């Protein structure tokens, strides 16, 4: 929502909005001239001409009710995004269960370095630009396409990039077959627009499902499969990841990434797949991905203290957690402490038997209570259920600390020189990293 607000302000619209608490995004919107209220009140929409809502806004919201009673036009955020993108000839939409935020940001960064001034809308803040959207000057628009509520089907891309598809958001889709069908409909839009699909061939089920699409309009990338764009001889280092890029069977040269993990190798391959098939040079794309510094809350370095480093990551699905921890271990090889906050009761319930398998590269795991995201908890589920299963399976040393406010104190007493600490989750677990650094600084100052 904040990304859309930025674009609309840059286009000259008067923008106001409501939220429940202030954050950096709100402060930046205020600096741009937006009026932001820190509560919901029907008075806030009295002067509005158009209302934009996210899926999080419920029908009983007082502003929503007032807008309906006044017969104001009400649009879902994806509809506004579609309207914005419709103004551009090249419309690149990035979808997937994992990796879409980073891939979208990387695409925007590379296009910018290539001299193309893209309009971009991303679900996370880019470290390089310190924002999540901007209105460009070219015919390129790049947007993250959110599948969580099916609203990505409102977009009409000329380029559909799909990083992977995994069973997620079953509260909306019901079955994995319905989810995959939605992705096929999303990709078919690019085909209908005489565009292309950029596809991760390592996702075997997804690749097979696209067999009916014209091969001339499908560009594939992969690490473990014989895709058109491949990464070979992957090397993990404390400064990032290196690999050799192969395109149509020909090795083009070495690529150096400042970001970490096998998943970011895969994300970068999507950029190469699109850029090479559209005539950009390998060297120009390689220079671009090399300068990409990542996105906020994706293995973001928070600080260094007491001989250790603290990071934060948005990962909350078992696949994301496992991939990130494995990438850290491969590149750094240091003792790793993971602090995990499960997200939503429904997701925790659905994945309760999978979570214990994803922390294998952590030396110690601290699990705190579930972040509800205002979701009801009819089963009275707690994170203790995950801890019990990890104890039974004799996984990494696991500690259950229900209240996240107690975690920093626990770590201050046990952290060792050289430790890496990472907070993981889509809720508010990132506050623990900041608190830990503050307590470590205090401890060091007193010693």
Helices and strands, with pairings:
Elements: H1 2-10, E1 16-18, H2 24-31, E2 35-37, E3 51-53, H3 62-69, E4 74-76, H4 77-85, E5 90-95, H5 100-113, E6 119-126, E7 131-134, E8 140-144, E9 159-162, H6 170-173, H7 176-192, E10 196-200, H8 204-209, E11 218-222, E12 229-237, E13 240-247, E14 250-257, H9 262-277, H10 282-290, E15 300-305, E16 308-313, H11 318-332, E17 336-340, H12 345-350, E18 364-367, H13 384-392, E19 397-400, H14 407-412, E20 420-424, H15 430-446
Parallel strand pairs: 1-2, 3-4, 5-8, 5-9, 6-8, 9-10, 10-11, 11-12, 16-20, 17-18, 17-20, 18-19
Antiparallel strand pairs: 6-7, 12-13, 13-14, 15-16
For this entry, give a set of tags.
447 residues, Rossmann fold, UDP-N-acetylmuramoyl-L-alanine:D-glutamate ligase, Protein-Tyrosine Phosphatase, Chain A, six-stranded mixed β-sheet
């Amino acid at each position: 929502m904040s990304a859309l607000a930025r674009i609309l302000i840059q286009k000259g619209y008067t923008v106001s909005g409501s939220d429940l608490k202030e954050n950096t995004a709100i402060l930046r919107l205020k600096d741009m001239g937006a009026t932001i209220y820190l509560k919901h009140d029907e008075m806030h929409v009295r002067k509005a001409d158009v209302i934009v809502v996210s899926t999080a806004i419920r029908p009983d919201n007082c502003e929503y009710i007032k807008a309906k009673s006044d017969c104001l036009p009400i649009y879902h955020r994806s509809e506004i995004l579609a309207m914005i993108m419709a103004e551009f000839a090249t419309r690149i939409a990035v979808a997937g269960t994992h990796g879409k935020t980073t891939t979208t940001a990387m695409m925007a960064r590379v296009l910018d370095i290539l001299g193309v001034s893209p309009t971009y809308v991303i679900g996370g803040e880019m470290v390089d630009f310190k924002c999540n959207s901007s209105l460009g000057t070219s015919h390129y628009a790049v947007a993250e396409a959110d599948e969580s509520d099916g609203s990505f089907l409102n977009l009409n891309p000329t380029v559909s990039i799909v990083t992977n598809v995994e069973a997620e958001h079953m509260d909306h889709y019901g079955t994995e077959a319905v989810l995959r069908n939605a992705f096929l409909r999303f990709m078919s839009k690019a085909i209908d627009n005489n565009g292309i699909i950029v596809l991760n061939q390592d996702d075997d089920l997804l690749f097979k499902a696209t067999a009916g699409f014209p091969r001339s309009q499908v560009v594939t990338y992969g690490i473990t499969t014989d895709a058109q764009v491949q990464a070979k001889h992957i090397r993990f280092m404390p400064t990032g990841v290196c690999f050799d890029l192969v395109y149509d069977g020909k090795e083009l040269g070495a690529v150096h990434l400042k970001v970490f993990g096998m998943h970011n190798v895969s994300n970068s391959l999507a950029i190469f797949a699109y850029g090479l098939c559209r005539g950009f040079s390998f060297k120009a794309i390689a220079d671009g991905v090399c300068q990409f510094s990542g996105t906020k809350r994706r293995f973001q370095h928070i600080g260094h203290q007491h001989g250790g480093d603290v990071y934060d990551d948005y990962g909350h699905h078992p696949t994301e957690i496992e991939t990130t921890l494995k990438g850290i271990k491969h590149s750094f090889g240091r003792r790793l402490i993971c602090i995990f906050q499960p997200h939503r009761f429904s997701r925790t319930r659905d994945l309760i038997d999978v979570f214990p398998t994803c922390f294998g590269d952590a030396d110690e795991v601290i699990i705190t209570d579930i972040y509800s995201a205002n979701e009801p908890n009819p089963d009275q589920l707690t994170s203790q259920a995950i801890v019990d299963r990890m104890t039974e399976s004799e996984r990494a040393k696991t500690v259950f600390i229900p209240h996240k406010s107690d975690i920093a104190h626990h770590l201050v007493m046990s952290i060792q020189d050289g430790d890496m600490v990472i907070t993981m989750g889509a809720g508010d677990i990132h506050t623990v990293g900041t608190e830990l650094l503050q307590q470590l600084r205090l401890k060091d100052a007193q010693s």
